[in-house]
Amino acid sequence: MKKLTALILVLMCLVTLCACRTTSQPSTSAKPVIYLYPETATQVTVTLDYNGRLTSTYPAYGNGWTVASQPDGTLTDASGREYYCLFWEGESYVDYDLSTGFCVKGEDTAAFLEDALKKLGLTDKEANEFIIYWLPRMEINEYNVISFQQEIYTDNAALTITPAPDSILRVFMAWKAADEPVDIKAQELQGFKRTGFTVVEWGGAEIR
Prior knowledge:
Blueprint: H1 2-23, E1 27-37, E2 42-50, E3 53-58, E4 65-69, E5 75-76, E6 82-83, E7 86-92, E8 100-105, H2 109-120, H3 124-138, E9 143-149, H4 151-156, E10 157-162, E11 167-178, E12 185-186, E13 198-206
Parallel strand pairs: 8-12, 11-13
Antiparallel strand pairs: 1-7, 1-13, 2-4, 2-10, 3-7, 4-5, 5-6, 8-9, 9-11
């Protein structure tokens, strides 16, 4: 009888674990875009080591992107087609860190992002693209809890760039909607200095 009871308990645990795996949802790395700013016209190869599943890329990723890159950020592929950035999205089971960050009223989201992205080092043009993409999803909420990720994101989505850039900025915002104010320790935003061949990336993930 004891053996039967033990077996039933083991089976119940296995069923519970399977159910957890089935119902857990991956988070989406939404619209990371990569800008390349070499000092002179340069052929650049970018590869992404992503701990997840790529769901969309443009231009098509294949085994990586190789483009002719101009100092103004213009990119040209082998067929002669021009782009202003490299785009990818993917799904991953990474757990983002919201232990520090900001709680912002939905109606204040645009002003907050303008200030935060400037502090982080995005240009007005880059910040405009960021805000245009995220604002419609965020300003309709009562509040948004926002945290800019560092190693958790960069380790989960490692970039290899050849030739190696002199400076690289990767801005990734994890956020979730809230109905009420959330008490959260303020996050310190580090500035960024562009030197030499500069690479800039921004993206984000909504946590549900």
